[in-house]
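Input.
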Amino acid sequence: MASPFTERELDEIKAQFDQFDADKNGHITASEIGAVMKALGEDVPGYKIRDMIREVDIDENGTVEFDEFTVMLEKVRDSKIKFKLADTAEKAKRLVTVGGLSEASAEGTQHSFSEEEKLAFVDWINYQLEEDPDIQKHLPIREDGNGLFEAVHDGLILCKLINCSVTNTVDERAINKGKLNTFTIHENQTLALNSASAIGCNIVNIGPKDIMEGRPHLILGLLWQVIKIGLFAKISLQNCPNLAVLLRDGETLDDLMALSPEEILLRWFNYHLEQAGHPRRVHNFSGDIKDSECYTVLLNQIAPPEANVDMSPMGESDHERRADKMLQQANKIGCRKFVRPKDVVKGNARLNLAFVANLFNTHPALKAPDEGLPDFDLGDYGETREERTFRNWMNSLGVSPFVNNLYQDLKDGLVLLQLMDRVQPGIVNWDKVNKKPFKQMGGNMKRLENCNYAIELAAKMRFSLVGIAGNDIHHGNKTLTLAVVWQLMRAYTLSVLQKLAGSDKPIKDQEIVDWTNATLSGAGKSSSISSFKDPAIATSMPVLDLIDAIKPGAIKYDLVNSGNTEEELLQNAKYAISMSRKIGARVYALPEDLVEVNQKMCLTVFACLMARAKSGK
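Output.
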């Protein structure tokens, strides 16, 4: 879709954007948008600004960048400097306001949540879990009222949905089923939240009690993270090797896979528009799709011939009726999910992104050219378990931007600096940090300066940095980047443990080993470990026994295998990891790490269990 603004207007908007970018970081925050709105003659309440950010914040980083700002400005101008998000009556119907949504909320605080998102998530959950026998009592979740928030009360749906997004994250044996009480429900919610964290969800300020009490905006926010992770998981060369056809002249596969999932989806969308000979292109999941024209072309392009998808929606001039007809076409290929006609017309970025991701996952319709795909080894472009664990850990802490590619997204040093500030609060002097956006001229130097500063701080934190320089991070050297990231994760885990232990000295590895053995012995357990590379860890018995020592009766030993085969070892490890999370340990390691006795990840498991015990929860 052509921009609604002339080139001159865009220059003026950019100048306005820069003027109100008070901290000059390339983003507009809620407070800065308030200043923009006042300049436009609108004194807009803060909660409305937050609603608007949610609609146009395409990349989900909590702020608004220039492209998103132009979408926002278009909405304002289209309605003659009135919010077109919804008029007062429509807002009352579709945006629900509630008070006191978290224990941290001040008394009288008002929060709103999107009725559209609630409906979309209800439909998706009903679709994904319709055949699961354990939750039939909850299904189908009703769309009206608090049906969704009541359905997630016991934790079963959350655990199941997490497994839909990332298979086998939650071991079914760890889930409390059948007749539940407040205690067993709390355990399920703890398991669900720690499992969500392990797949990369940011659960800061969300606790089991929030879900049990049905706090709407916290539940919707968590559901969106879980659903999005599942939708994005398939956007990879491993799942779709023919993604390689999206390469542009002069690009490598590394360049393609460095793109965010959102960028890949836009490129996929535009590839099919180009293949159809259509003149338009989409640049976002909001304004550019509101008239359903590009959607109609895309569906016609990707649908199998036997589905009989056609261009008939374009015969309808009214955009909402056209959107309805377009979705009828989507239904022919089983993809009428996430959006309703008004969500399309309003340009709800979050729900339209989900709609497009589901289209890609279901019907990518990418064919290798006659000359074949470039010669490449899929193994070179897959994410290792270690890389995925590190990335999920970062994202669970709420770093910005969301880390999709471990190496690409660390190249400017900003994520590393945020993590260092988490490990050792106050160590980063943010006045010395170069913020986004980075200009084309000199931008790489600014990124490199950040990386150099990160390595300087890493030295102060006594990291092992032999042969590691800022330039290695900036250029995405995998081995050296992983070395820094591992030390950050280790330092973070031990800093949490040190704080809980009330120690003024860093916790050493041997102290964790000694505590583990003392706790096991004190509980009458026969297992023990000599180090974090002890072969006994492969059976998972030291972990299972330690869990049972911390919380007596937690482990159902009749569910534990003898460990005579690789499969039995893996099953024990799955149970041990899920049970660790169930008793409240924020474990990021994977079952395979225990079976293979991955020394680094085993350290984090025992450290997290020690932290859980020290917390007294």
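The beta strands are 95-99, 110-114.
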